[in-house]
Every structure is written in C-alpha cells, then in structure tokens.
UniProtKB/TrEMBL annotation:
The active site is at 127 (proton acceptor). The gene is pfp. Mg(2+) binds at residue 103. Its EC number is 2.7.1.90. This is Pyrophosphate--fructose 6-phosphate 1-phosphotransferase. It comes from Nocardioides iriomotensis.
Length: 342
C-alpha cells in the first residue's frame, strides 16, 4: 500500500512529529510506502512530490515547521482542481491520503472524502479552535511562547510605569490569549468572543496603577470593541479561503488607552513567533500520537475520519465534526479569568 502525506495552512510546531509518527509506524508495522506532497494541496494539484521514508524523518521530532512545506491553496477554487488531485494520486500509486491541517485544510479533505477520495485527517492549529478534539498540537507551544513574553514584559512595564499591550494570534477564538493571559498574570484579557468596552478597559488600567505594578493587557488579533468600529487593520486582500489578514489591534488599543488615561502605553505584537521554533513536550507527545493513530486509521480503511484527543485517548471522529463549527471560548470560561482583571 502507498500512502500520501501533506501539511496545509499555517506552519505549526509538531507537524514534523506527526509526519515522523505516520512514517515510522507505517513502515515498521504495516510495511507501507509513502510519498510526500509538497506545499499543502498544491502538491497533489501540481503533482509536486518528495521521497518520504524512514531516512527522511530521522531527527525531525524537535524541529518546527514542516519538511513537506505548506500553503493555503484551495483546490475547489481552481478549475478542475478535484480531477487534478485524483489524477495525481493515481499517477503516484497512492491508495490513501493523510491530510494534516486546520479548518481550511481539513475542510478540503472533508469535501474530497465525500467525493470518494480515501483520506484521513489530522487536526492542527495553534488557535485550538477545531471542534471534535480537546486540544490541537501547536497550541501548547504558542501559549508557552506568549506566556514567556508576558513574564518578561511585567518587569519592563513596572520599570517604566507604562501599559504594555500584548497582541497574540486568534482570528475568531481567544484560546491563546485566555490561556497565556491567565498563566502570565495579565490584568486584562480581550478575546473575539467577548466584545470589549474601552472605557472599562481604561478603568481597569487606572485601577492597576493604584498599586505599584503596571498593567499588562493581552489581546487576540480578532478582538473587537463593543461600541462598534474597526480597531483591527485589514489588508483588504483575501486568501484562497476568503480570509482577510488581521493585525493592528494592539497598536490601536495602546494608542486609545494612552489618549484616554494619559498613561504611556506600548504594544508588543508576537505574530509568527508564536508558531515557529521547536514544539513543547506536550505538542511532541500529542502530534506523535496523532500520527500513530492516523496511519492505523488508514490501515483499518476508516476513511473520512479525523483523529482527535478526548481526555487522554486518541479517538476517531467524522471529519465534519472538526470543521463543521469553530470551538470558541465560552462566557463561563472567560468569567473565570475576569476575577484577575484590574
């Protein structure tokens, strides 16, 4: 049996650990052969491949990024895209495909499975916003990177008696901001699920300055003010999945706080630092287990499924469970963090 593997969407710590788990078990336990498709869905679309075997996966466990490359290619936006993918799989003798990615990559996989392609999905996103799984790999690494940044910013904020606004990733879901903010002792956490009141934020800033400590505000890139208006910069250009580029909420929020309170405020945008570099132990563990279970699902011919973490077990769920709707922070979970605001 020959199995294709691809990684799509934004790069993420742990992708190489999945690839390694898939290949090592596939070769050792099942005697399978593998072909790597380069740069997400562009690989099978344009028949761009690379050798993928035990030699290729040696030493990649601690490496960030993906040895297969990635892209945000959407084959359903390309004329004849589905037929090209099927032809490419057939030309390479591929019997089944393992797609590793987030909402968009697995959304394509879901549609292809409905069209008869033998595909198994592995959920990946630092945003942790895929339903069907308790956690996605990459999230823990992103949270730890953001937490360390917040830890370091506390002392410089206090030294200069200034507000520091830390902008983290999170287009629609505030999981990184919530977890990193709680772990890092932030004084305010702003997330997309809970539109914020700028006056209340400023009041919390003033309250914090009544102590000898300076405020740290953590904000998701997709957070919005309750009173309306757009504080998030958008490039205006859409990617192949219809997403605009977000960013700028940190700078705008810092400017507004400084204007309203008279306190010096600076913004720190963590950006792609959150999803680069070596994965944490948890993400290596989770990604490896996902890879091992994904190739077992292929062996069982259990196609149209996605591996998922439920408690401590890796289970299989229909692909649509992971992509049908986003997993968002609930009001109850956000309320827990509000105890520490101010």
């Amino acid at each position: 049996m020959r199995v294709g593997v691809l990684t799509g969407g934004g790069d993420c710590p742990g992708l190489n650990a999945v690839i390694r788990g898939v290949v090592r078990k596939g070769v050792k336990t099942y005697g399978y052969e593998f072909v790597g498709f380069r740069d997400g869905w562009r690989g099978p679309l344009e028949n761009v491949t690379m050798p993928l075997g035990v030699d290729q996966v040696r030493g990649i466990l601690p490496r960030g990024g993906t040895i297969l490359g990635s892209s945000r290619t959407n084959p359903f936006k390309i004329d004849g895209g589905v037929e090209k993918i099927k032809d490419s799989l057939a030309a390479n003798g591929v019997d089944a495909l393992i797609a590793i990615g987030g909402e968009d990559t697995l959304g394509v996989a879901t549609k292809l499975a409905d069209l008869g392609v033998n595909v198994v999905g592995v959920p990946k996103t630092i945003d942790n916003d895929l339903s069907g799984t308790d956690f996605t790999f990459g999230f823990d690494t992103a949270v730890n990177i953001a937490m360390e940044a917040i830890d370091r910013l506390h002392t410089t904020a206090e030294s200069h008696h200034r507000v520091l606004v830390v902008e983290v990733m999170g287009r629609h879901a505030g999981w990184i901001a919530l977890h990193a903010g709680l772990a890092g002792g932030a004084n305010v956490v702003l997330i997309p699920e809970q539109p914020f009141d700028i006056e209340k934020v400023c009041a919390l800033v003033e309250s914090r300055f009544e102590t000898r400590y300076s405020p740290i505000i953590v904000v998701s890139e997709g957070a919005v003010p309750a009173e309306g208006g757009d504080m998030t910069l958008q490039s205006g250009e859409l990617d192949a999945f219809g997403h605009v580029r977000l960013g700028g909420i940190g700078d705008r929020l810092a400017s507004e706080i400084e204007h309203r309170t008279g306190k010096e405020a600076r913004a720190v945008v963590l950006g792609h630092v959150q999803r680069g570099g070596t994965p944490t132990a948890f993400d290596r563990w989770l990604a490896t287990r996902f890879g091992l279970q994904a190739i077992t699902a292929v062996h069982d011919k259990d196609y149209g499924k996605m591996v998922a973490l439920r408690g401590t077990e890796i289970v299989r769920v229909p692909l649509i469970e992971g992509t049908g709707e986003l997993k968002l922070v609930s009001p109850e979970e956000y309320a827990e963090a509000e105890v520490f605001f101010g």
